[in-house]
Amino acid sequence: MAKLRLNTTLMETDFFSGSSLYALGATIPAYTLCWWMNRAFGLEFVREPELDVCVAQKTAPTAAPGLFSGMTTEVAGQEIYYPVFRQELYNEEAELLLYTNRNGAARLLPEIKHADYLLLVKNAAYLDLDIDWVTHLHQLNCINWVRAIDLPTVTEKNRLIV
């Protein structure tokens, strides 16, 4: 029997085409950040629990004590959830997705470990080309810093697909 494989490369290309990713540093809870962004930019971010990203935390095998000291046991990893907030723009052609990048010591995107939040602007071509997200987000007092991230360099960007 032949095994079928899902081609995730095409899915990633479609999901991220025309998108921009920004890393945000803010020490406030996600709902407070959304409130500030809603108030400042006239948005309506909504948390949609069905979009939350679930990542299985890998754990190392542990050695069994005593009589079975030569054996190792596999400990099942726990699942870690990262909340996602969504804002649709212009008849659902463009949208903003705000991901929580931290959950305790774990990170949604480990290579961007310094960021508290990630803002994905999907289908940015439908938005006003004069929008400079870095400048606009920097105007909020609750955001400490903003950096544009080059999407092709992100190794685990498949975790952002919702």
Describe the structure.
The protein is an alpha+beta fold and 162 residues long. The chain has helices at residues 8-16, 30-41, 133-138; strands at 20-25, 46-47, 53-56, 62-63, 72-73, 79-82, 84-89, 94-100, 102-103, 106-107, 117-122, 145-149. The strands form four sheets. A six-stranded antiparallel beta sheet has the order 2-7-8-11-1-12. A hairpin with a 2-residue loop joins β9 (102-103) and β10. The longest helix has 12 residues, at 30-41. The mean pLDDT is 83.
- Which class of secondary structure composition applies to the elements? alpha+beta
Instruction: List how many beta strands DSSP finds.
Output: 12
Low-confidence stretches: none
Shape: globular
DSSP strand content: 25-35%
Report the helical percentage: 10-25%
* Major sheet description: 6 strands, antiparallel
**Overall pLDDT confidence:** 83
Gyration radius over CA: 19 Å
Q: How many angstroms does the end-to-end distance come to?
A: 31 Å
Give me the strand/helix succession. HEHEEEEEEEEEEHE
Specify the number of helices: 3
How are the strands ordered across the major sheet? 2-7-8-11-1-12
